[in-house]
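Q&A log
Question type: sequence-to-structure
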Amino acid sequence: MRSIDLNSDMGESYGPWKMGDDAGLMEVITSANIACGGHASDPETMFQTLSLAKAKGVVVGAHPGYPDREGFGRRIIPMSMAEIERMVAAQIGALMGVAALAGATVRYVKAHGALGNFSADDRGVADAVARATRAVDPSLALLAISGTEQEPAGQAAGLRVVSEIFADRAYLANGRLMPRSRAGSVLHDPEAIARRMVEVVASGKMPSEGGLVALEAQSICVHGDTPGAVAAARRVREELEKSGVKLASFVA
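Response status: OK
Response body:
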């Protein structure tokens, strides 16, 4: 039986400001990408999210992003490659420190937002993220956007690379994510999202505005900040399991 991971971005609240339904998503997903204090989160939010993941048996990963809470990490901040390395290493380390208190273990890294999109297209940025990950802990896996520069960068750094596709995002003809600034870039219909994922997992091809694009898929992301994320993740899981696919973390 084929297995696939279902992940979501978590722990993106900050102080009294709440983002997403982490508790609801933890009942459905197999891996949680936890914000590390850059684009979102704080030590208390990290601890609560890590503790919840441990209680639910969900594998956890670090989700570093640009230090831009006002922009939710979706704006590129001009930085040198060395500065990106240090930023990513510091955020991974922060989550690992809080994880030690929570009795959890950080198993992988996934770049967030603008950092993720930039590193998908720019090999230098992708290398910086991969080098930082390896420097902190070479046993960490790298959750990489499928078909992008993140994959060869992770491989060159000697990391285990896991290819990721997105359930709730539209794709461009070149296999990249459609910019959020465009209408229709974020998908909301749980039934349509679930059917699409079953077809993609079966065929290895993602629908895009220019036709089908071949993409490797070892993990599926449902964004935790998207309205209706829990319903979408639940339907994706139900339909995949109905089609004979087992849901399990890639590091379980």
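Response note: Helices lie at 22-26, 43-56, 81-102, 113-121, 123-136, 150-156, 190-203, 229-242.
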